[in-house]
Amino acid sequence: MQTTETSDGLRFAGKVVGLFGAGIFLLPFVYLTSLALLLSAYVHGCAWPTRPFLKAYAAPSNQLVHAPWLGRVYGDYFEFWVRITGADQPSGPNQP
C-alpha cells in the first residue's frame, strides 16, 4: 500500500516529466519564431543582426528540419513565420 508521501512524490515526478516533455516539444517553436523574426529584421535593413550572427544562430535549425517525424512540422512552421514577417520579400540593403 502506498503512503501519502509516496503518492505525492510520484505525482511530483509525473509533473516534472510532463513539463520537461512539453518544454522539449515547445522550445524549438520558440527558437524558430525568433529565427524568423531575426531574419526579417536582417532582410529589411536593420543593422543588427549581422549576417555572421544569423548564420551561427540558424545552424541548429538545419538539424530541426531533418528531425524524424517533426521535421516537416518545424519546416512548415518556420516557412509560415517567414511569410508572416515578410522575410521572403527583401526590401532593404541587407539581402541574403
Backbone shape: elongated
Described by its quaternary structure, the protein is single chain
Major β-sheet profile: none
The portion of residues forming beta strands comes to under 5%
- Count every beta strand, where a strand is a DSSP E run of 2 or more residues: 0
Radius of gyration: 19 Å
Terminal Cα span: 64 Å
Low-confidence stretches: none
Order of helices and strands: HHH
Mean pLDDT: 88
Structural class: mainly alpha
Helical amount:
over 70%
Helix count?
3
Quick overview:
By secondary structure, the chain is mostly helical. The protein has helices at residues 4-43, 51-65, 71-85.
Provide structural commentary:
The model has no long low-confidence stretch (mean pLDDT 88). With 96 residues, the protein is mainly alpha-helical. It has helices at 4-43, 51-65, 71-85. Helix 1 (4-43) crosses helix 2 and helix 1 (4-43) packs across helix 3 (71-85). The longest helix is centred in the N-terminal third of the chain and has 40 residues, at 4-43. The protein contains three helices and no strands.
